[in-house]
Each structure stands twice: as C-alpha cells, then as structure tokens.
Amino acid sequence: MTIVFVLISIAVLILLITWLKFNPFIAFLISSILAGFLLGIPPEQIAGSIQKGIGGLLGDLVIVIVMGAMLGKLVAESGAAQRISDTLMSIFGVKNVTWAMMITGLVVGIPLFYNVGFVLLIPLVFTVSYRYKLPAVYVGIPLLAALSVTHGFLPPHPSPAALVAQFEANMGLTLAYGILIAIPTIIIAGPIFAKFLKNIDSKPLEIFQAKAKPEEDLPSVFNSFFSALFPVFFLIGTTILTLNMSESNLVFPYIQFVGDPGMVMLISLLLATYTLGTRMKFSIPKLMDYYVVATKDVAMILLIIAGAGALKQVLMDSGVSLEIAAALQGWDVHPLVLAWVITALIRVAVGSATVAGLTTAGIIAPIVSTAGVDPNLLVLSIGAGSLMFSHFNDAGFWLYKEYFNLSVKDTIKSWSLMETLVAVVGLMGVMILDIFI
Length: 437
Fold this sequence. Notes:
The chain is mainly α. It has helices spanning 2-18, 24-38, 43-77, 80-92, 97-109, 114-132, 136-153, 158-167, 171-194, 221-243, 252-259, 261-277, 284-318, 320-329, 335-350, 353-364, 367-370, 375-385, 395-404, 408-436.
C-alpha cells in the first residue's frame, strides 16, 4: 500500500498542475500534506517536515540561482550576447549558419535561463532569417536545442543545480560531465536535425526582429566571452585543483571556499558588474535595477524548487523512501535508465522540466548510496529525461509556436521532436560516460 499512497500523491500533484491549473508551488504543498497523512506521519509533524524540506533545499541554492539570474540579465542588457552572436556569425558565415546559432545558444545559454535566452536570442534568429532568406525554423532549432540542453543539463540552471544539492553531487564534476554530453547532443538535435526542417513554412512577425545595439555600445569580443563563461571555467578549475591537491596543503581550504558554487557565482557576478557594467558606463543604481528584475524572474522557480524539497522531505521522514529504494533495487533496470524513465513520464504528464526532475529526485534519492550509482551522472540522466517530448502542457511549446507563427502540426514536427532527440541522445551519452567513470 505504501507505494500506492506515493503514486496517489504524485497523481494528485500532476492533476493539480495539468487539470486544475494550480500553481506548482501550491500543488507541491498540497501533495506533500496529502502524502504525509497517507504515509502515517503524525499530523503535528507534517508541517515541520515541509518546513525542513523547503529550508534544507533552498539553503544550498538561493545564492547560485539568484546570482545566475543576475549574471544572465547583465549579459543580455550589456550587449554581450549580441556581440557573441555577431562574432560567431562572422566566423562561420551563412553556409554554416546552423553551427553559428548552435554555438551562440551554447555560450549564451550557460549563464542565461531558458526563457531569458529565448526572448533575447530569437529576434537574432529572425534577423538572420530575413537577411539571408533562410527558413526561420532551420535557423532557430540549433539555437533552441542548445538553450534547452543547457537548461536541463548544466548548473547553475535551477533543476540541475537543485539535483546536485539533493544528491550531494559535485557541481564542478556535474558541469564538466554535462558539457561532454551536451555537445554531441546539441549537434545531433541541432544542426543535423535542422536539415530535415527546411521545408517547414514559418513567417514570424517582423516585430520580432532584433533591435541591435550600435557597434560602439557593445563590449569587446574578449570581454563578452570572458564575462559570460567565467563561472564555467572558474568552477571547473577549482574542482580540478581540489581533486589534485592534498587536504593538508595550506591553500586547500581557501580553494574550497572560492570553489563553492555560491561563491563562484558571487565572484563571477561582481567581476561582470565591472567588466560588463561600470566599465561599459552603466551606473550602479541602473545595474541594481537590472538585478532586482532578474530576481523577480526566478522567484517562482525558487518556490517550485522549495515545494519539491517539501515533498522529498515528507517521503524521507515517512520512511517510504527506503521502501521505494528496496523495491527499485528489485527491478532489472539500470538505475540511470530508471531515473530517466520516471522523469520522462512525469515530464510528459506535467509539462515542466523542473517539476519532473525534482519530483523524480524525491523518489529515487535513496538508491544513490545503495546502488553505487554516480550521483553526477544521475543528475544528468534526470536532466535528460526532464526534456522529453514537450507538447501542449509545456509553456515552451506555445512560446516557440507563437514566436515562429507555426501550426500545431509543424510545432510537434520540429520543437517536440527536437526535445525528444535531446532526451534520448542525452541518456545515451550518460550511459556511455558511465562505462568509463
């Protein structure tokens, strides 16, 4: 019966979000309370479990996610994203436009949240499409594949960052592994898949053409790439140093301190505040206004993550997590594949990659220690599953459809299939990497 009660709680979560259109945070709280009662937690302890789950998960993530949102906003407003895109187009040329768009999405997508990256970069896609008379879907899919993969696979994006915290993985290693898997995944779901989409007729409105900044107002090429990618190199660099340095070394604790993901993002933001901010003649009050707007953009994401933490804690406090772990161990399925399947099913049912990933984490967390699975690869497996077949219940589906002015059929043929490719190829990459780690 225990497993049945868990399934009922998750089914209620899914119905609240998809059928009744509840806010995911409220849906998580209701499902957590229901799970607490069904699983036999004393009523006076349910509220405590929920509070503990919310605080425990957000404590690790608030700095990373908020600082990441602020950095992404600055990359957009300073013109660094425009400079990166223009530079790659000049290098690759019109013939290889899909590769230029793919790399633009990858570079800009690492610091930018998906919705911000979409709104920022899609006008550039339409500008290229109009200028060179190329199909908009053909030009845009490689960029969107890159944005989607960075959103699902790479910290400091909310879902992978939250999964790193839940599984006590190493954020630097997860990021390094994630990049290794992300690159071939994006190539297959981006430039290669785009070749089959040239016949899709898309007539995006001219209003969506990019309002480019004047050349003299843009940061330099080096400054743009350096500021956008600094947190990636810094995080990987400090991880490599700590793995290859004795704990008795005098500088080891200081490297651990600056290598903490929250400190990495804070240092990166402070650096970019100068390189892309005050150095580019932005006033401090103006920059702080940008940061306030960025924080508002991720407030609901933080609440969704908090709700997922509450459900996870209730499952743990009830003892059901151990029962689920024991049941899952009896399945003749590799834990990484199992995690992917569970996430993919919830993703298709709910529509939210973040909700799917964090819900799965609460279910499958106990097998991390008992099954000997690498927690960094588990983060990536769940991340891949969370991108499976975006359709009518996913806001990203409609965002893409309306911007590109497509029919539902063509949206499924391009966007939904691209997301499915990302999910499947991502899992294949995880399994190949698992052989060597």
